UniProtKB/TrEMBL annotation:
MF term (GO), any: N-acetylglucosaminylinositol deacetylase activity
HAMAP family reported in the protein's UniProt record: MshB (MF_01696)
Record's function text: Catalyzes the deacetylation of 1D-myo-inositol 2-acetamido-2-deoxy-alpha-D-glucopyranoside (GlcNAc-Ins) in the mycothiol biosynthesis pathway.
Cofactor binding note of this UniProt entry: Binds 1 zinc ion per subunit.
Name of the protein: 1D-myo-inositol 2-acetamido-2-deoxy-alpha-D-glucopyranoside deacetylase
UniProt GO BP: mycothiol biosynthetic process
Cofactor names: Zn(2+)
Length: 279
């Protein structure tokens, strides 16, 4: 359950590609069309919300191409395409748009997700933590709607709910990797504790190694060209010594029992560890 087209790839693209390839039914629910995003493709600049306001429709096409690269075919929008609008960054005027996801009625929005749960019957659901990983209103709302849907769904609720996360140790490695780089995403940050995200390693529940699917993730990132320019630090990381980082994604487990794991903190390498698979 993601907020905008591109989040599925940035946060969980390798995981989605791995499970799709392994034969799991992967359903993506995206809450908005990303109407309020920036545009990093100069020839498309006129689509911006303040002008033609066509970016949402274009990002639907980017999402279609990205999910094809990930091998994911069940791609849905919460309440149907266009029901909820990208709310923009926190405390911007777009927060107050009548269809802004940030202002959605929680139970109404959760009801749309319950309908998906009742149809798909997921054993596992993935979304963001309480701060939406980095504080974007649509990410926070995606968290709230998902957790509310789990409360309302009864026997259609998942056995396990994961939240995307990055271990502090990986953040520190990333800061070291980019310390001398001109496109340092951590510029101005002295200490990993100063970052608004990052989870203590001991609170991580799963380290999903989908390294064999890193290239699928990169292809999907390239599909989101309006949001992820070729100069993005993600491409720098993928081309550098941090390339393995792109194929490994981490999660906490707020709902459900952790299955068998490895390492000092017993990290799972399978989101379905310990899950009862329906026939
Ligand atoms: C990854 C993600 O959630 N992207 C959102 C986010 O995009 C940011 C926004 O454009 C901001 O103005 C930029 O400075 C920042 O670099 C972007 O990551 O917010 C957008 C508007 O809500 C959203 O469309 C985009 O998907
Ligand atoms: Zn987002």
């Amino acid at each position: 359950m993601h907020a905008h087209p591109d989040d599925e790839t940035i946060g969980t693209g390798a995981t989605m590609a791995r499970y799709a390839a392994e034969g799991a039914n992967v359903t993506l629910v995206t809450c908005t069309l990303g109407e309020e995003g920036e545009i990093h493709v100069p020839e498309l600049a006129g689509l911006i919300a303040a002008e033609a306001d066509q970016l949402g429709g274009f990002r639907v096409s980017e999402l279609t191409v990205a999910c094809r690269a990930l091998g994911v075919s069940d791609v849905r929008f919460l309440g149907g395409a266009g029901r909820y609008r990208d709310s923009g960054m926190m405390d911007t005027p777009a927060n107050n748009h009548p269809r802004a996801f940030w202002g959605a009625d929680l139970d109404e929005a959760a009801g749309h997700l319950v309908k998906v749960f009742e149809e798909v019957r997921p054993q596992v659901v993935v979304t963001y933590d309480e701060i939406g990983f980095y504080g974007h209103p649509d990410h926070i709302q995606a968290h709230r709607v998902t957790m509310r849907a789990c409360e309302l769904a009864g026997d259609a609720a998942p056995q396990k709910v994961y939240w995307t996360a990055v271990p502090r140790s990986v953040m520190e490695a990333g800061m070291a990797e980019f310390s001398g780089s001109t496109d340092n995403p951590f510029s101005g940050v002295e200490n990993v504790d100063d970052l608004p995200f990052g989870t203590p390693d001991e609170l991580i529940a799963a380290r999903i190694d989908a390294t064999p699917y890193a290239e699928e993730k990169m292809a999907a990132l390239r599909a989101h060209a309006t949001q992820v320019p070729p100069t993005s630090w993600m491409f720098t990381l993928a081309a550098g010594s941090g390339s393995d980082m792109m194929g490994v994604e981490f999660y906490t487990l707020p709902v459900g029992e952790k299955g068998p794991g490895v390492g000092p903190y017993g990290w799972e390498n399978d989101l379905f560890a310990g899950v009862t698979l329906s026939e």
